[in-house]
Request: fold
Amino acid sequence: DGGITQSPKYLFRKEGQNVTLSCEQNLNHDAMYWYRQDPGQGLRLIYYSQIVNDFQKGDIAEGYSVSREKKESFPLTVTSAQKNPTAFYLCASSIDLEETQYFGPGTRLLVL
Amino acid sequence: KQEVTQIPAALSVPEGENLVLNCSFTDSAIYNLQWFRQDPGKGLTSLLLIQSSQREQTSGRLNASLDKSSGRSTLYIAASQPGDSATYLCAVSGGTSYGKLTFGQGTILTVHP
Reply:
């Protein structure tokens, strides 16, 4: 089955800790994206990558970092600099920018 | 900066009704507009994508229209069913937001039997 997987489903972060959210796709898509969703709000773009070894900041990149070393993988690290990390994180991919985006099931990050 | 607004924020209808969800955007220089469905605690499912040169797209009981010049899109759902209950999100890309989707806050739809 082709699709996008995210892990873990739930993640708990302690004060001052960096945590990494996984996103993998086997759709052979070039573009990948990370969004954050807060309760009752739409999605906001954190980072996006048009191609391997390239990525760009979105609207709310502060306190986050990404890498794109492989076409199928786009991990997101939530650093200790992100003071309000509690949210639902969604990863997406598309054939190219401006094409239909396909979303993973999401990771819910909670702070202990 | 592109802004996307969805009205109403929530809608509750009896099964079988036809309904319309509205989406408006401030910058008409878009590349495309997408409608998504989100079930509670889940990811998004793409429903329809309308290119800026198109006026509408249809999929089953869903029909989405686009009026780029007025900055509006509607999602029409025919003969609603309880299984249609979900949050519906509108998103636009293009213009100054090339490669990025700007989302509305969504409409929470409840279809009761």
